[in-house]
Amino acid sequence: MTDTSSDLPPFVRTWPQLYAIVIGALVAEIFLFYGLMVWFS
Amino acid sequence: MSGLDWGVLLVTLLAVIIYGVIRSRGSRSMDDYLLAGQSLPWYHVGLSVMATQASAVTFLSAPGQGFTDGMRFVQFYFGLPLAMVVLSVTFVPIFHRLKVFTAYEFLENRFDTRVRTLTAGLFLLQRGLSTGLSIYAPAIVLSTLLGWNIYITNLIMGSIVLIYTVLGGTKAISHTHLQQMAVVTLGMALAGYLTVRMLPDNVGFVDALHVAGKAGRMNLIDLQFDPNSRYNIWSGLIGGFFLQLSYFGTDQSQVGRYLTGNSIGQSRLGLLMNGLLKVPMQFLIVLVGVLVFVFYQFNPSPLFFNQQETERLEQSPYAREYQLAQIKHQNLSAQRQRAVMDMQVALQADDEAAQEAAATMLRETDESLKAVKADVVGLIRKNNPVADTNDVNYIFLRFVLDYLPHGLIGLIIAVIFVASMGSIAAAYNSLASTTVVDVYRQLMKGESDAHYVQVSRWATIGWGIFCVIVALFANQFGSLIEAVNILGSLFYGVILGVFVVAFYVKSIGGRATFWAAVVAEGLVILSWYLNLTAFLWLNVIGCLAVVGIAWVLQKLFAR
């Protein structure tokens, strides 16, 4: 059982890049939710 | 339920069970039975992790929370993506490299047998009880709404899953999780779509969200820091992070899922997939509840969604008071329909003053309706002090039964069953593996692999019986999704604290950690008993207390 870079999806080169995408998606969702809340209130 | 509904329900359940049994062949070694031979790709791992967390409670309670409390429940999941990243960096490589069957095996390597056994014991207690709740939650709702006997429903919920869990172990569980997620996604997507379709002709999806927003249900983000508020961005990010980290990092029902990945990378990808999809998924599930709320703004709604309790009230000395409350409710419902129609006209005309007037009327009517409902809840309680006065878990299914077309009703009931089966199967498997690997194998060393697999099968059956018994006695937990999370929060923080010390504070030994965990567990239970803070913060308190007390004890013991 080895950890190889071949496990990474093609759109990233390193694991930290993938972590950044996950955290970035959360931040984007929070902003989106805030926007939805303001728009619909 | 019509014949079509029964057909859809039975075919779906049979398909899952037969598929699980077929997939169960060939699990003869411990590695196969408990870890599926560590052979699964990332999407298997990711979907299995998601299916394990999404129990039937998720699909009953979350839309109910959206209906009564709005979208703010989504914030509860904000800590999850962060926890997935920390797990991918720290926990996954360590568990994989040590080739452990359970998370608690690692604790013996790091500390001693005592810490391993204590932590495994806390897990078994917490998971055994909460699995009982996971069986009871959908069983009670289905029994009430469909008139099924609660004991039979509990037995069906808790026992059919045993067939493929006992036979096939982790491999069967992970494969059935894929099917289960497909059924759940299809069912919820159709329910959400049809709810919007059933709104009046001139009300579209965006209009529905405007109405929800004016009625205070689009409260997605609460920036205020209030330790006693259950759902705000801070409790979600900080408390939720600790809860999810301990759930996914130290609860064997989840560790057992991602250890099935065929490499560290595949396990990581599965967890990160969960990190990306979980918040949008919960958003959509709670949104279905908000859409149901909007639907009931345009249509008459039940005064109380648990009809069994209102029927009892009709036969009681409080029947007259209940009738008066019903008349008030009907008048207020009609008033609410007028207000929401005015709102709709104002929104289309872009008339802000009229929108504000309608919104004020809507909020005032909503408050009056809540007051009438509170009076009826008081009557229900007076009539029967042990009655179930929380109808949150009944809202979504009541709506499904009253308004969705036949066939889809069967599919939604199937969603409740298969979601339940997915999380219960993972729980049974984790309880059995922890019992055998962390307790039995310590006492009966040197037996063959086949012997331990056989004992694992018996342990699965034993835990299945225990959980069904808990389900038979479970009662009076309010919103069940909260009850499950509160129960988890009582233990997860302490278990996480033990793992944090193990991973990050190398200078602290087993003796200090053991006693710190015992004292911290007492503190957490005391904090909960005295109602000192909202439950999500118990995870933070438990974890920090273990680390802090262990550090102090280590200094004292070193002298």
UniProtKB/TrEMBL annotation, chain A:
Domain of life of the source: Bacteria
Alphabetically ordered keywords of this record: Membrane, Transmembrane, Transmembrane helix
Transmembrane segments: 18-40
Protein name per its UniProtKB record: Uncharacterized protein
Automatic annotation (TrEMBL), chain B:
Segments crossing the lipid bilayer: 6-22, 42-62, 74-96, 117-142, 148-169, 181-199, 231-250, 271-296, 408-431, 452-474, 486-505, 512-530, 536-553
Any one GO molecular-function label of the UniProt entry: symporter activity
One cellular-component annotation, GO: plasma membrane
Chief location category: membrane
Source organism, top-level taxon: Bacteria
Keyword Transport among record annotations: yes
Keyword S-adenosyl-L-methionine belongs to the record: no
Keywords: Cell membrane, Ion transport, Membrane, Sodium, Sodium transport, Transmembrane, Transmembrane helix, Transport
Name of the protein in question: SSS sodium solute transporter superfamily
